[in-house]
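The instructor's notes for this session suggest beginning with a concrete chain rather than abstract definitions. Hand out the sequence below and ask the class to guess, before any prediction is shown, which regions might be ordered.
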Amino acid sequence: SIAGSDGSRIKLLLGPTGDDFVLALDEDDGERKWETLDWCGDVPDPLCKQLINMTNKLRHVTTMAFGPNGEWYASGKKRDGSGEHAWWGGRTDIVGNEDQISFGCNSTMVHINNPNGFSSSGILPDSLQQRMSLINTQKGVIKRVRLLPPKDDYDWSVPRFWISDSQGQMWSGDLDEPIANHLKSGGKDDVLDLVQAGDGTWIVIRPNRFVASMGVSNRLTLRLTNFYRDQKDRREQNNLRIKNYDALILRVAQHLKAAEEERQSEERRLAEEKRLAEERRRVMEERKQKREELEERALILRRTNEVQEAIQNKGLQVGTIVNTVGDVTRVGVTSPCVITRLRKDGVDIQVQHGGGATFFIQDPRQLVVMDGKDNANMDISTSLSMLYLAHDKYEASLCFLECECHNGVCRCRVVAAAQISVDPSPRTFRPLLENRKYGPMVSRFDEYTCAEKIDLIRLKQVLSELRMDHDARDSCIKDIARKMNASHVDASRKLKLQEWHKALQRCQVIEAVAETLEEFTRAAPVDSMGCVVHEVRYEHRDSASRGRLYAIGAKVNVLGEKHVRTATLQGMPSDLRSPLVGAFSHDIDCENSEVRLICSLASQLGLEQLTPTLIDYRDRRQYWLDQICNLHNVTRGQAKRLPNIILSGGMYDSWLRKVGHPVVEKREVKGFARRLWSEMRALRDQLLVHPRFSWIDIERKSLLAAGRQPGRIDDLLMPRIVASCENEVLGIMHRCLFHLGWHIRAKVFDGLIIEPNEVNSSISDALKASEDACLVQGWSIKLIEKPLHGTHDNILPALDVSRKAMQVLNKRLSPCPQPLTELDGNICSEVSPSLQLIDPFQNARKPVPLAPKGGFLDGQYCAYYPNLCSTSTVKIAGQTIYATNDIGTSVSQPYSMIDASFAATLTELQDKKRLTRLVDPSPLVVCTCGGGAMNVAGMLPPSKSIDIIMAPDSEKPNSKRVEITLKHVLVVNNLPVPIHLGIRKSPDFVDAWKNLTFIMSSASISPAKNIFPVRFHNHKYWS
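After discussion, reveal the predicted structure:
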């Protein structure tokens, strides 16, 4: 680098006149150093010859001086510090190797040895002697001493002087007035040297400039001017080289750091994946073990219930005479037996003959009650029904045998048999969300980073709603565009069409952004509430990097949109934020921000006197808006645009054209607008020249390069100043809320989307704290909460308007309701006529996905696998219907199933006459059925349930009824029956087992399509 100032590199002496001088310039370009010498006029020849000798011997001048009587002094050394030597002439009292030396009139001389040593000869001014002594005593620094020509040239004259030291500078009281005035008020930069010729001409050397009096040699002033200019250029070029080199070093370091961070991140990712895989394996093992334990307990409970049921039905008790009939593998004991003990899991019997051996009978159904005469008591047990189940993983066989037993011999016949197979490899597939860490959570303050949080469940629900009408909307947009271009459309009709067209296009934009966001977050981890958190960076897009911050995200190009949107909370339409973050976030905004920011800026700079009308509008905004609305008959939103247009450089006439009104000026409003325009013009002119906004020059050059008219550029710069103030205020709010513990989810230009944590203050306290933090920095703003929190269940406004438009234009017919009364004979007449069987997923059903190679994984599919010999009679919402169940089957799930279209008819499952929003059933994809597959729509949310009443035997009016609440219900598209009960494993039936008696005999009603509603008859399951 180039050390020292440019002025410190100049060594200059003046002779008798301003044309007599000796000049030594120490030049440096950062890579090499050299010295340039020049002299002219009446100067000592020995001094000039010695200067030449020093140059020839590669020495540079360190000190030089000459006096009015021919005395001279020069010293020099090489660049490496060696070869230091001094030469002089005309005097004998010089010691040599002086740091400074100055000759004056009448043989006066001053020697300075750094930092504060001095000696002198001749008669010097007392004030100079006292000043040098004071600096020496205080151990200060004497920077420069110059003995100047006396005021009067007499033999006894005392030289005048100028001294610069650690306490400042001092000069003779009789110094020439021009020199004294310049030293007093010539500038705040230091005076490095002062030289004066015998004729009174003078030069003052400063760090980056010099000042010369009239009469100084033009040659000398030109050399000095060129030196300052050249040295400045060299310094700038050298600084640029240093800056580029430092930037290169920084880039290399950043690249190495990024590579190391990437390596560490990859190692952490692999370790996390390994941990998650191990965790999944452990969870699966625990689930498997728990499932096996539950199945074992259920089997034991079922076995106990069957034993007790058989004992009760046969009327068995201790002392009852019975006979065993054996089972399929052995012949029973033919001698009559007596029951000696009743157990939970069976009975003990003792043979009355042949030694009285005791046997344990596990199945009491194998016993025939005797009448005491070795005859079977046919009144009690005329026949024996046995059920054999084959417990295969994919196949179950049911076989009913009816046996008649006499004297220990049974004759059996098959009365019913069935065999069901389940395809173990479903042919459909839906990709799962991998819990892969997408990015780091934001846990430190970073003005350019926010942690966006998206409700993924509601995102999917919004997409389902939008996709339902996509094609109809597209057709409707084209139809409306054609109608608006027709010449016969009246004005009111055209306004209505424009409103519909805007809403329809907005829906298309929302759908495009939602689809991009869904794809973007597909690989992100999902928390327990179904939300995804990911990091979003922000950037400046203006040339000076002072304006608004824009979110960096996946870009969404939509035909007809002026700007490219991003799949972020900032870039998405405001309608979409409500369902995605309305459940947990708040939207805070600066009220009347542009006006308040400009008023605050004027106050900071002491320019309030320029903006009285703007301050009045800020304080009486309601009054002025009412005046504009009443006088011009415009809406409040249109009235707000007038001040905003003027603040951005527009005029009253511009506003009239934009709101579509004829140019009918109102005097009061026009006066207000003109005063506001004049004040903004005056304030703008002050701001553009203020040092605080010197960066505006960058924007000015950018606008000129873009081809903007020079006369319009000043108007375009004012909004950029306001945007920089807006960004400054947003940064203060961001930092304040961050330190209060709030999560900053997004920046939306002049507002923030925030979420509280567990220990936050209230939203009102947070707004007050942010306002106070801004006020401390000079910004008087007012923060308000905009409608967002709690709006997550509201229907999208654009979607509502677009559907109304489509209904008017007959682009989407309402689904035809199918009354439940069509199901006569299968559903009782208690059905309410207001209930309608509709398909809530019309036009939104996705095709069943293809099965991946190798089939679905465990947990990705379930099976509809009903009991083929018996159904359950249930009462739902006043309707008595048949339902299938999984009693006696080998395949069952821990939930019941309901058909989506039937679920939509139940009032308890409706929200605004539509089926309630379902919970994502992931990882479930499909439900297999008879070798085919059905799409799984979702699970009922925890807030919804189905109340049913079950009758164990519908043929007995007085049989006990059981009330059950179904909370674990899977909603399936196109189920073969209205409802299927998961009695075996569903938690909903745990407490109801002891109250249910399922009759499984030839009198039971088997599942057949004719007992279910007509709309289910065409399901391929029944074929």
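Then share the key points. The first strand starts at residue 10 and ends at 14. The chain has a mean pLDDT of 79.
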